[in-house]
Amino acid sequence: MDGLLSPVWAGIPAAEQTSDHAFLAALLEVEAVWAEVLADGQHVEFQDAHSVRRIANEWTHLSELSPERIAAAAPAGGNPVIPLLNAVRKVLSSRGESDAALHRGATSQDVMDTAQMLVAHSVTESVLADTARAADSLAALAAEHRGTVCIARTLTRHALPSSFGLRAASWLDGLTQAVSEVRSAAAQLPLQWGGAVGTQAGLVEIVGAGEARELTAQLAERLGLQNPGQPWHVQRQPILQLASALTSLTAAYGKIASDILLLQRPEIGELSEPRRAGRGGSSAMPQKQNPVFSVLIRSAALGAPGHMSTLYQAASLSVEERPDGAWQAEWPALRDLLRLSAGASARAAELLSGVVIHPQRMRQNLEEAGPSVFSERLVETFAPYHPQQRSGVRDAIARSAAEHTELAPLLREEIPTKALADQEFEVLMGQILDPAGFLGRTQEFVDAALAAHRQENL
């Protein structure tokens, strides 16, 4: 697939890493490595194992093994491994070579599941590399703009002063937590090798139980996968752990993209996407610069949960020793989830490395929000001087907002001068309306996010 209808991942390494071509290569690699493990254990001839390896290395030049032909034949057996094996045997026969080392003691699900783990391993490496770039950019923004004041919004309305550095730190914290899950899941991607029904009975008949255990461990090591100690062909926790981690990561990216989409609206104008040649153009309006990075990232975040849901449903319906449809439903869902998470990571790395910050517009929006955004501070400061204390100050603030009148003169009228002189009132108002003095533990929270980022070593 070339991603014509999926621009979020089109053209990135994961597009090739998850292609039919790549998956077919993974299937053949599993078969070749298994043949080599058997040969090293003197259970098949080295020449026979070499024949399988040769096909795994040369398959792109063999018309019998084209992804299109294997895919077209897959419905007959319900999975692509069966026609792939038929094609490999045909090639071996045409060369006068034996198929004795091919698929010995294995079953289709062993090869399919293990190949999926190889593909997932390749893609998660790309995801983690791009996420490291994105996180570094956020860490730099958080540190640089820790004192850049802006208006915080809750339920779409102006709330209190905050700092853009804290917002960036919050984005960073989301990535830091999500990437920890992805790393854990990626490090635990396991070999699946159970034979026809998960007992390894066929393999044990050939080599014995102890040797079957050792050969399985060797296969896992050579493929760079974990040896789980037992098959997981109907217990799909490795798939679910990976799916959950990738969906969590795309959600973290979705939060960032959604915020950036809002903050770069012309009426807000606090951020701008980087201007890159060929990015963001409109087919009808040449003056228009579309926020394509954020749009594509958000599309991935919207699509990922559906694929995760499919994988969870499939796991719950993984009946008996070979699921009847649930297993097959997994394959495209996992591949699409890998693609979306890789696409979100790649686009976010590019977006965050060049996002443009507009501190002056942030300050302007904060000032336009008016003094009511300091309401908590106003109440705490002036309550002791107002005849009705806290309720009186709250009422004055509410009245100012409702009548669109200036708050300072209204408060001045309601607070007796004998309780608070004019000069002292002016000093207090100046202090209260300084947003830099009403940021709470912002600096501490920014430091905590930066420290967690360094500790995760993204």
UniProtKB/TrEMBL annotation:
Query: What is the protein name given in its UniProt record?
Result: Lyase family protein
Question: Which Pfam family, giving just one, matches this sequence?
Answer: Lyase_1
Q: Which organism is it from?
A: Nesterenkonia flava
Q: Which family does it belong to?
A: Belongs to the class-II fumarase/aspartase family.
Top-level lineage group: Bacteria
Claim: Ligase is one of the keywords in the record: no
Q: Does the keyword Lyase apply?
A: yes
Which InterPro entries does this UniProt record tie to the protein?
Fumarase/histidase_N, Fumarate_lyase_CS, Fumarate_lyase_fam, Fumarate_lyase_N, L-Aspartase-like
- Record's keyword terms, sorted: Lyase
Q: Which positions fall inside the Fumarate lyase N-terminal domain?
A: 88-302
UniProt GO MF annotations:
lyase activity
